[in-house]
Design brief:
Helix content: over 70%
Radius of gyration: 21 Å
Number of helices: 17
Largest sheet: none
Distance between the termini: 50 Å
CATH architecture: Up-down Bundle
Number of domains: 1
Strand content: under 5%
CATH topology: Na+/H+ antiporter like fold
Number of strands: 0
């Protein structure tokens, strides 16, 4: 009986600690998402070892990030996203190439007998390239939640970050496929590219069909109904499932595309308010805490610690410089370049997934796993802090908090009847 219902205790501890630490971080002018991340680290194996990743936590966290990206899609200005499309590609491309080169250079220097001995089966060249591939990853969910909390998701910089992050995911998949195909002959690059193109063709057809069908259904009713929210969520989940299972594209990409489709409907604000509540109450705290709970820090010697320090610095600087340079080339102002570069720093759970896949294929030695985990932890925690800092410079931009109450503080104000008109 005790084992069966342990998930209830886990859930209670996660919600309690994320809220308490969220309030603490807000008191010190930091985004509350930092508190949720710290709660997972504090309660997980890295510190107190009270909570561990379970099937329930993993699955609920996955739903959490899907809802988060779905809401981000609903809040995105499609016209603005179209305008930043070419720029987003350039930003994402340089945001992949520069970290790839930086990671390779660091690994090339440290991954040698006598410095750090590797037990990986692949050649040293492939191992070094793979470290670079890990650094190309971007976990946009961290930046999205922070931008929503600050009310800056609809700024030019916020749209550029969203667009670049989606393209970054695609480029990251291609880079990972190229490296793994060199280590595993069963992986076909051509098939992966074909699936990516196939997904966007499928998403376009499914999105148009759903949009016109749902729009017609909305017009038949004079008021919003709960069944409307259920049906758009079904569409989100189905598109996320198809993206991951049939096309090998991240489920969050499918969720974001579904959100974009719903954003063009009549009652988007009402729909968003429904998802905001469940996200605030349950799913978002679970997702962000789960990232910290996954972290296990292995023992490391002095040389590995040195590699870790250098890798963290390179991981931060290469994203800021690469994405910032891409934004500058595309005509963004300096303060916008800084915002975009910082918004792409976080590696989050994406880098952990990539690292785990590489370890299984013999592309990364066990000595390098610890440094990668630390890179994930540090970049995940500092991204919200740095984002809030860089958004202090330059004009406020276009968004403000807007009508969609999608962050913790705004929802609380709704309930207290204090939301500004």
């Amino acid at each position: 009986m005790e084992t069966t219902y342990n998930f209830l205790l886990d859930l209670a501890l996660i919600l309690l600690t994320t809220k308490i630490l969220g309030l603490v971080t807000r008191r010190y002018n930091m985004p509350q998402v930092v508190g949720a991340l710290l709660a997972g680290l504090l309660m997980g194996p890295a510190c107190l070892n009270i909570l561990h990743e379970t099937t329930f936590i993993h699955d609920a966290a996955e739903i959490g990030v899907v809802v988060l990206m779905f809401c981000a899609g609903m809040e995105t200005d499609i016209d603005e996203l179209k305008k930043s499309g070419k720029a987003s590609f350039v930003i994402a491309l340089l945001g992949v190439l520069v970290p790839l080169a930086g990671g390779f250079a660091v690994a090339y220097f440290f991954n040698k007998p006598g410095i750090i001995d590797s037990d990986a089966g692949a050649s040293a060249f492939l191992q070094n390239i793979f470290i670079g591939v890990i650094l190309t990853a971007t976990s946009v969910s961290i930046s999205v939640e922070t931008l929503k909390e600050m009310g800056k998701l609809k700024t030019h910089s916020g749209n550029a970050i969203l667009g670049a992050a989606i393209i970054d995911d695609i480029l990251g998949i291609i880079a990972l496929t190229i490296v793994t195909s060199m280590a595993d002959s069963s992986v076909s690059l051509g098939m992966v590219l074909l699936k990516i193109v196939g997904f966007f063709a499928f998403a376009l057809i499914a999105g148009v069909a759903f949009y016109y069908g749902y729009k017609k259904w909305e017009e038949l009713t004079n008021r919003p109904l709960h069944r409307h929210a259920i049906m758009v969520f079904v569409f989100c989940l189905l598109l996320s499932y198809c993206a991951e299972v049939f096309f090998g594209v991240a489920d969050i990409t499918g969720a974001f595309v579904a959100g974009l489709v719903v954003s063009k409907t009549q009652r988007t604000q009402w729909l968003a308010s429904k998802f905001d509540t469940i996200s605030y109450m349950l799913l978002s705290p679970l997702f962000f805490a789960s990232i910290g709970i996954k972290v296990v820090l292995p023992a490391m010697n002095g040389k590995v610690v040195g590699f870790t320090v250098v890798l963290v610095i390179v991981a931060v600087l290469t994203k800021v410089l690469g994405c910032g340079l891409g934004a500058k080339v595309c005509g963004y102002k300096n303060y916008q370049c800084a915002r975009i570069g910082v918004g792409m720093i976080s590696r989050g759970e994406v880098a952990l997934i990539v690292a785990d896949k590489g370890s299984a294929l013999g592309l990364m030695g066990s000595s390098f796993l610890g440094p990668v985990v630390i890179v994930v932890v540090i970049t995940t925690i500092i991204t919200p802090i740095l984002l809030k800092f860089v958004f202090r410079f330059g004009p406020n931009g276009a968004s403000g908090t807007g009508a969609l109450a999608s962050n913790y503080e705004q929802i609380e104000k709704y309930r207290e009847g204090e939301m500004e008109k």
